[in-house]
Structures are given as C-alpha cells and as structure tokens.
C-alpha cells in the first residue's frame, strides 16, 4: 500500500485528471440536471421589445388624453401614440411607438373616452435589452442546468441546449457475506450499498447503467470489472480495497493494466479508497470505495463526486463553511470527516458514526472537515462537505 495522499489533494487530483465528456444538443426538458457544454447566449435582447410593467395606459403629451385603442400581451400592434392620446395597455404588452409614459391603471381616472392622471415619477415599462443585450453571454460552460437555467434559456428563445453527456456509472458490489434480502444473521449482513449508492450517484449527475454483485474471487472480480467497463464511463466498486485474503481489487487492476490516480487517502474514516484509469478503447475510470458503509459514503464525496464533476465539465464541488455547535476531535495526521447535522445553533456531530454504522449517515447533512494535526472547537468555523445531492 502506498503512502496515502491528503484528502484535499485527492479531490483535486481526480477532478483535474477527468476529461469532460462530449457535448450534445438536447431539447430543453431533457437538459435538466446536465451541465452546459457551451455558453448560454441570448438569441435576442431581453426583453426583445419595450414591455409594459403594469396594466394601465400608454400616453404622450400633457393630460387629458383621448383613448384611441388597446394593446394586449401578445399583440403586434401598429398603433402610434401621439400627443394628447392614450392607449390602454396590459402587463407584458409591447409599448406602442410614440409612448412617453405608461401610467398605472389605479393611478388614472377615466371619463368616457378621456383619461386623466398625474405623470408617474418612474418609468413603468421595461426597455429593450434591460436584462441582456442580443448575443450577450449569460452563463459560462460548466454551469449545471436547473429549472431556473431552463427558464432563462427558454426566455432567450432556445429550443435546445448543448450539454455534456451525463456520466454512465456501473456499480459492482463485492462481498460473499452480503445478503440481498431478509434480516442479517449467521455471519451474513445485508447489502446496504447496492440499494443506496445509485440514488446518490444520480444526485451527483450520473446515469446508473447497472448494479451487479461479484463473488470474492479474483476471476469473478476481473470478469465483473471488464463487463462493467464495457458499458460505462465509470466503474464504481465497493469493498476489496485493502490487501486481505479476499481483497482482489488491486490484483484485478494490475491484471487489467490500470493506472492509479489515487491509491489510498489520508482520511478517517475511509482511507482505503482509490481511483484508477482503465486502458483500452473508450478507456474509462474505476473508483474503488471501501466496503464499510460510512467509509463508502466518504469515498463517494471524496473521489466519485469530483470525478463525475470533471467528466461533466463542472467545477470541483465547493466546500461549505459552518460554525460548530460542539468540539470535533482531529485524527492525527489524517483528515477527519465527522458526520454532522446542520441546526440553527450550528453543525452538530452525530453519534453512531462508526465506519460500519448507518444511523448517523441516515440523519446527516454532511461531514465536518477537521484537517490533519488540528482540532475544531465549539464556535469555530470549519469546512463542510454535504451529502451527495
């Protein structure tokens, strides 16, 4: 086993090594959750025409004004407002040529065909290009598409967006001791990662293409990894990352001719995690997570999340900052990731936080980060990595 890399360096190394997947145009609804491959540029000015902000009257010259027509939202009216005339106008309608003021409906008095009011102190319409000029870059590549981004793209006139293809992940679970159903007992435990990791991976922007189990033999490991790699960009494995009698992942990677990017990380829990590149046509990636559930989740946020972001052309996932509601110990020369819940009083670390335990994971918002050779006292600020998604 090599000397472990620091937690911060491991995240950065994996993200830097990932080459973004190709971009492709997709209809707007299909772009949700993907990452922009090209800048989002306005196809027209926003708004594309002078637009009334209120229901009221478009007028020119001094009051009173003679009512000469009406313009509703969606109309391409050819009415021209001249001095002494008014046109009734709806919110969102195109402001007629010649308009000097738009007056709110509630500020006017109407007597038959005549409108009177005091002139407003501010303009009650949105001028062409108030939000953006035609051709302006609104968002750079690498931004994840949210419903808000979709709304902006639609407002700009886009029918499709160029986005990175979502990384395809094949999950392989190792461990002869694992049960797929029923209560644990007689030396067997339930597989907690097979059911849970796909949900976390989808929250990280991946498409999960398969979930398989492999027996604890070298031949079964090699076969499972080869088959998973043939259908995915990333093979994600659980268990087998140490060098025990049934830990076959390292020999499998040696047989396949893989190259390590990260081989163990100086973090507790979870240090026996790894990332490697696989050779051959359509060469892909393998992320090896420890078998203990909490350690596997730490491996997910340490290695898988930065890798998937890099493949999607997105930035390295940022860390949050929290105030601690209790003391958090360090772990010597290793970075300590401590399960925590966010409360109005700050981040509170959780019990049942052993590497093999899940009660803490189920109630956590993420992990407080305590760097090597330090402790984190109550009231201090600390970096925080959220749970996936």
Automatic annotation (TrEMBL):
Gene Ontology CC: one annotated term: cytosol
Domain MoaB/Mog stretches: 170-310
InterPro entries cross-referenced by the UniProt entry: MoaB/Mog-like_dom_sf, MoaB/Mog_dom, MoeA-like, MoeA_C_domain_IV, MoeA_C_domain_IV_sf, MoeA_linker/N, MoeA_linker/N_sf
A Gene Ontology molecular function term of the record: metal ion binding
Keywords: Magnesium, Metal-binding, Molybdenum, Molybdenum cofactor biosynthesis, Transferase
Gene Ontology biological process terms, A to Z: Mo-molybdopterin cofactor biosynthetic process
Coiled coil: none
Pathway stated in the Swiss-Prot or TrEMBL entry: Cofactor biosynthesis; molybdopterin biosynthesis
Keyword Magnesium: yes
Reactions listed under catalytic activity: adenylyl-molybdopterin + molybdate = Mo-molybdopterin + AMP + H(+)
Principal EC category: transferase
Cofactor(s) listed in the protein's UniProt record: Mg(2+)
E.C. number(s) listed in UniProt: 2.10.1.1
Family listed: Belongs to the MoeA family.
Record function comment: Catalyzes the insertion of molybdate into adenylated molybdopterin with the concomitant release of AMP.
Protein's recorded name: Molybdopterin molybdenumtransferase
Classification of source organism: Bacteria, Bacillati, Actinomycetota, Actinomycetes, Cryptosporangiales
């Amino acid at each position: 086993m090599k000397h472990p890399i620091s937690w911060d360096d491991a995240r950065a190394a994996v993200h830097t090594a990932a080459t973004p997947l190709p971009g492709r145009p997709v209809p707007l609804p299909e772009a949700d959750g993907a990452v922009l491959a090209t800048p989002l540029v306005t196809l027209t000015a926003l708004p594309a025409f002078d637009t009334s902000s209120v229901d009221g009257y478009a007028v020119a010259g001094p009051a009173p004004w003679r009512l000469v027509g009406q313009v509703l939202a969606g109309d391409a009216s050819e009415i021209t407002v001249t001095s002494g005339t008014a046109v009734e106008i709806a919110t969102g309608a195109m402001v007629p040529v010649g308009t000097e003021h738009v007056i709110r409906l509630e500020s006017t008095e109407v007597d038959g065909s005549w409108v009177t009011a005091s002139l407003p102190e501010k303009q009650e319409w949105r001028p062409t290009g108030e939000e953006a000029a035609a051709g302006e870059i609104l968002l750079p590549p690498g931004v994840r598409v949210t419903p808000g981004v979709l709304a902006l793209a639609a407002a700009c006139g886009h029918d499709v967006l160029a986005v990175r293809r979502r990384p395809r992940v094949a999950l392989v679970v190792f461990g002869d001791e694992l049960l797929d159903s029923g209560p644990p007992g007689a030396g067997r435990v339930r597989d907690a990662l097979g059911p849970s990791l796909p949900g976390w991976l989808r929250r990280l922007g991946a498409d999960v293409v398969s979930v398989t189990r492999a027996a604890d033999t070298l031949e079964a490991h090699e076969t499972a990894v080869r088959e998973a790699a043939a259908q995915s960009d990333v093979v994600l494995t659980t268990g087998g990352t140490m060098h025990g009698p049934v830990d076959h992942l390292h020999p499998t990677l040696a047989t396949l001719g893989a190259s390590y990017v990260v081989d163990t990380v100086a973090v507790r829990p979870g240090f026996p995690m790894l990332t490697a590149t696989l050779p051959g046509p359509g060469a892909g990636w393998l992320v090896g997570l420890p078998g203990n559930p909490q350690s596997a989740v730490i491996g997910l946020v340490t290695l898988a999340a930065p890798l998937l972001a890099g493949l999607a052309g997105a930035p390295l996932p940022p860390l949050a900052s929290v105030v601690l509601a209790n003391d958090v110990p360090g772990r010597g020369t290793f970075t300590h990731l401590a399960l925590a819940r966010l409360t109005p009083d700050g981040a509170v670390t959780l019990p049942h936080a052993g590497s093999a335990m899940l009660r803490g994971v189920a109630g956590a918002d993420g992990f407080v980060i305590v760097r090597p050779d330090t402790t984190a006292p109550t009231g201090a600020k600390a970096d925080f990595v959220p749970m996936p998604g």
